[in-house]
Write a structure and sequence with these properties.
Blueprint (H helix, E strand, L loop, with lengths): L6 E6 L8 E5 L2 E7 L5 E5 L13 E3 L2 E3 L6 E2 L5 E3 L17 E4 L2 E5 L23 E4 L3 E3 L3 H9 L4 H4 L7 H5 L3 E5 L2 E11 L3 H6 L6 E10 L3 E10 L16 E14 L2 E10 L6 H31 L12 H19 L7
Antiparallel strand pairs: 1-10, 2-3, 3-4, 5-6, 6-7, 7-8, 9-10, 11-18, 12-18, 13-14, 14-15, 15-16, 16-17, 17-18
Helix pairs in contact: 1-6
């Protein structure tokens, strides 16, 4: 099931600079490109003549030309030219999708265009702030349902076992979590006091002795996850409210993630890291590009293995443990929105 009246990330901004981008979102093939003025465009990836993918054609000015018989479509999806004749047949139109360029991403609205309010895009202002350094991650194509990504990011106890030599240690799994319902989603909070720093922190940052840490994950429908991480020397009060306001003492970053469904069993994950320490350090940039990519790839292995077992035995029932509470709250919030959307316009998301 999908929430259609929502913004999803379709591509990084730089991807459209290379030409046409063909992807499938919510089971619908889409072609993305930039018009002559640089504005992003998203069209149904199908010529209405004989269903040739338009992504196999070419851009002509602001328009797309089909590579089979040369029909031309404008950014609204209207066919404006048919070679060899002056009139365009009735029905010469394909679907266009609302798109917005924000926070270095191209966002697409797959539902009712009349409801496509850009203010519903999460306010991830760190992505454009000069006080934060942003490192983009590659697009991950994962063979799993997108809700497994939400589950994964809302349960960071798995870092103890999956990422033991990078960002996890035993202290993470030992600490209980606090679960809160927020608008259209859930918040997970964990504080870890007076523990050894994770391996990557000890290797690349200034932490030699024990540290205090926080992990706060805000997840909202359909798949927006802000993983807010903070770390400071033990005893300095590592909480979002009381952390030392000094980049020398505090390492703080946001791991921002969106899982855009391709199908019920495959997802594009877009992620970035925005940090407020060592802003000009090429070494730390490389840590986020290389080592955190490894972290995400380790999660891919886990989630694809989960999906494989789920596909093989669809009647399986899960048991729940304490750390599942945030993920279960997120699933409930998303299900409520999808149910309301499917019930009719009068109950759509406000």
């Amino acid at each position: 099931m999908y929430l259609r009246n929502a913004w999803y990330v379709a591509a990084w901004d730089h991807e459209l600079d290379a030409g046409l981008v063909a992807r499938t979102f919510l089971d619908e093939p889409v072609v993305l490109y930039r018009a002559g003025d640089g504005k992003p465009v998203a069209l149904e990836d199908r010529c209405c003549h004989r269903s040739m993918p338009l992504s196999l054609g070419k851009r002509v000015g602001d328009n797309l030309q089909c590579g089979y018989h040369g029909l031309v479509f404008d950014p609204s999806g209207r066919c404006v030219e048919v070679p060899g004749q002056t009139a365009v047949p009735p029905g010469g139109r394909i679907r266009s999708f609302p798109v917005v360029e924000r926070w270095k991403w191209i966002w697409i609205w797959m539902g009712d265009p009349a409801l496509a309010d850009p203010d519903l895009i999460p306010n991830w202002w760190w992505m454009s702030s000069p006080d934060w350094q942003v490192v983009k991650g590659p697009v991950l194509h994962i063979k799993c349902n997108y809700q497994l990504i939400n589950d994964n990011l809302l349960d960071l106890s798995h870092t103890t076992f999956v990422h033991a030599d990078t960002i996890g240690n035993e202290a993470v799994a030992e600490q209980p979590v606090k679960t809160e319902r927020i608008k259209d989603g859930a918040r997970m909070t964990r504080q870890i006091i007076d523990c050894p720093p994770p391996p990557l922190y000890a290797k690349h940052l200034w932490f030699k002795g024990n540290v205090d840490r926080w992990q706060i994950v805000d997840a909202t429908a359909p798949s927006y996850c802000d993983v807010w991480i903070g770390c400071a020397h033990a005893g300095q009060g590592a909480t979002p409210e009381n952390a030392p306001n000094n980049a020398k003492d505090t390492a703080e970053f946001h791991a921002l993630s969106i899982g855009t469904p391709e199908t019920a069993r495959s997802t594009y994950q877009f992620y970035a890291h925005a940090r407020q320490f060592m802003l000009t350090s090429a070494e730390i940039d490389m840590v986020y590009k290389r080592d955190f990519l490894r972290v995400f790839q380790e999660d891919v292995v886990i989630m694809e293995a989960q999906q494989d077992r789920m596909d093989r035995a669809t009647d399986l029932k899960w048991i729940d443990i304490n750390v599942d509470a945030p993920g279960l709250a997120m699933r409930k919030a998303l299900l409520d929105l999808i149910t309301a959307e499917e019930a009719g316009p009068e109950r759509r998301r406000a």
